Sequence to fold (260 residues):
Amino acid sequence: MAQPERPLSPFMQYRWQYTNTLSILHRITGILLSLCFFVLVYWLAAAASGPERYSAALATIGSPLVRLLLIGGLFSFSYHLLNGIRHLFWDAGYGFELPIARKTGWAAAIGAVVLTAVLWIVLGASLGGAA
Amino acid sequence: MSLRSPLGRVLGLGSAKGGSGHWYSQRVTAVALVILGCWFIASLALLGAGAPYAAVVGWLHSPFSAVMALLLVAVAAYHAQLGLQVVLEDYISDKGTRLVVLVALKFALVVAALIGLLAVLRIAFGAQA
Fold:
């Protein structure tokens, strides 16, 4: 027996598309950057506590788990920066037209990957790689 | 035209409470962080491989770097608090749990920010490495 057509809750009919992918990615990268903020504070506090504490902290920061977070942090910084600028333009009332929003969305996503690669080349050694 | 409901008007409650202030602060800190974030990444690169201790201390001895680092810590903590608050408010529906988690988040970020600020000041006013 066929089910009668019934109205669905908005989240049931919402099709997965690039807009909500980019939106949730902004949130995830924001959360990762918040975690990186605590690493930044740890690093600064260690530097303020003398050379021994500092080198011990560098070893912790260079441990696989923190390094993984910081690599995620590089991408998060790149994406959150570029997509954040996109958000600021929206807040000012520009860039809502679908073709433009699509283009800037692609620019933010591809730009973030490129920027991550560049930052990795420039900063890879600083992030516990060669310490 | 008023966006407030008759009940809200009688009870003296605005339509959005403190929402516009939150929204505006998030944007202002975002603009500041575009500058501060890029400055920080550039500074990290200039510290060189492994960010040696003497380089970090020398870097924060410059008044410009110290002020920028203080701003970065303060503004990043504030922006993180505003952003994480929105995320938590979206996913925690129980009002009691939400309040506890949001207060805990604020405490954690204020404590972390103060540690970061004190560390920068200690290095800035401390001995040269």
User: Anything to note?
Assistant: Chain B has one domain: 22-125. The two ends of chain B are 64 Å apart (CA to CA).
